[in-house]
Amino acid sequence: MGIPADIVRRALAGHAAIGLLAGGLLYLLCLSGTLIVVQQEWQRWEQPNQPEAMALEPEAIDRALAAVLAADAGKKPSDHVFVHMPNAGLPRTVITTDHQAVYIDRDGSIAGPEAHGWTEFVIGLHYYLHLPSILGLTVVGALGVMMAALSVGGVIAHPRIFRDAFRLRARGSRQLAYADWHNRLGVWTLPFGLAVSITGALLGLATVMAFAIAASWYGGNVERVFEPVFGGEPAFGPAPTALPSMVRPLDYMARHHPDLRPDYIILHDPGTPRQFVQILAEHPRRLIFGDYYEFDAAGAFRRTRHMSDGEMGKQFSASVYKLHFGSFGGLPVKLIYILLGAATTIVSATGMSIWLIKRRARGKPSPRLEGVWCATLWGAPLMLALAFVLRTAAGKDAPMVALFWIGLALLIGIGTATARARPLATALRGALAALLAGIGIAHAAAMAPIVAGPLVIDLALLLTGVALAPWAALRMARGAPRGEMAPAE
User: Fold this and answer.
1) pTM of the predicted model, to two decimals?
2) What residues contact residue 422 under an 8 Å CB cut-off, 6+ apart?
3) Is the peptide bond prior to 48 cis by the omega test (within 30 degrees of 0)?
4) Lowest mean pLDDT across 125-139, 165-179, 349-363
C-alpha cells in the first residue's frame, strides 16, 4: 500500500520549507561536523612538533602536575585540573587548569603551551555557531531536530526513494542529476543522518533544558540536574592539602582493570580539604564515553559512577557523544564518518540548489539568491582555510571568528550584488583549490622533523586542492551558459 498523494505533497512542501529556513546553517554544521570527526588529528596537525609518547610514568605525571600548579601560583586556584592521557588520535599528555593548557614531556617537564586555536575555532562553529553558549546550543539543537525532520520528510515525500536507491542519472539534465545525487546520497546516509541529527539535538537541547530546570528548581546549580545520570560530588571527608600522587590510582587501574585505558585524570579542588581524584577510563568495544573511577586524596579507590553498568538510562546518556562524533572503533570508524559526513554535506548543499534550479525552470529565477547560495557553499570552506592562514600568521588568539563571519558576509554581499552565480562559484572554487594545496605544501615544508600523522593531512589537503583545480579551470574555460545557474557545482 503506497503513501497517499496528499501526504506526499504535504511532506514535500514541509521538506522544502525546512530546507529553505535552515539550509545554510545546516550546511555549516555538516561541513564543520565532518571536519571535527578527526579533531584530535587536527590538533596534532596544528602543532606537529610537540613531544609524543603513548605512555607516561605515574611519577612523571606527579612532577608535571606539581610544575603546572606551581606556574599557576598567585592566581585563583583551579577548581579542576585535567590530565589528558595519550591515545592513538593524540599521543600526547596535556595538562589543563583554569588558566593554561600545556604539553608534557616524557620526564614530566612542561614542553610548551597547547595552542590549537584553529581546531577550537572549528569546534566552536559546530557546537555553537560561535554564538554565546546557551543561545548557540539552543540553535544547534533546534537545527538537529530540523535535520531529523528533513531526513524523515524526504523519505515520505519520495515514495520511490528506496526503490530507486541505485538509479543515478548523473549525465541527464542538471536538475535531474542534482535531484538524483541528493536523493541517493540521502538514502545511503539515512541511518547516519538520523543518528547524528537526533544525538546532536539531544546534546544541544539537553544542556539548555538543564539550565532552565536548574534556574527553576535548584537555584541555578546545573550539576544538581545531572546528578541522577553522572552522580554528585563525593563526601570522602577532609583530605590533606598536599597534592595527591597519581601512583596509587594508576596502579589500582592497572591491577584491577588491565583492559581499560585511562583517558583522563581529573583532580578536583586541588590543594584543598575537598580534593579527590577521578580517572575517566575508556571501555573497549562500548559506545559509552567511559566510566569514572574515584579515589580519595591518599589514592585509595572509593567508587565508580556506574556509567558502564548502571541503569539503562545512564548507559544511553553516556553513549550519545561517541555515536554523534564517531569516536569509537578507531581510525576505520572515523574514516567512515568522514565519508558519510561528506555525503551529508553534499545532500545539504544540493537541496537548496535543486529548489533554485526549479524556480529558474518555471520562469521565476532568483539570481541574487543564487549568488548568495554560491557564496555560502564555496565561501564557507574558503574562509575556514583563510582562518588557518590567519592563525599561522598571528598565533592561536588570532580573530578567526571575526574573519570567518565578516569574510562570509562580504562574499554573500558580492553574490547578492553581482547576481551571477556561475562566475562567482568558479572563482571561489579556484581560490579554495589554490589555498588548500598551498596550505598542504607549506605546512609539510615547515614541519621538522616530519611526523607521519600530520603529513597525511597535508597530503589530503594537497590532493583535494589538485582535484578541485581542473574542475574550476574547466568551468572557467566553458564560461556561463545564459539562463543557467550552478550554485553547487
Assistant:
1) 0.91
2) 374, 475, 480, 484, 485, 486, 489
3) no
4) 165-179
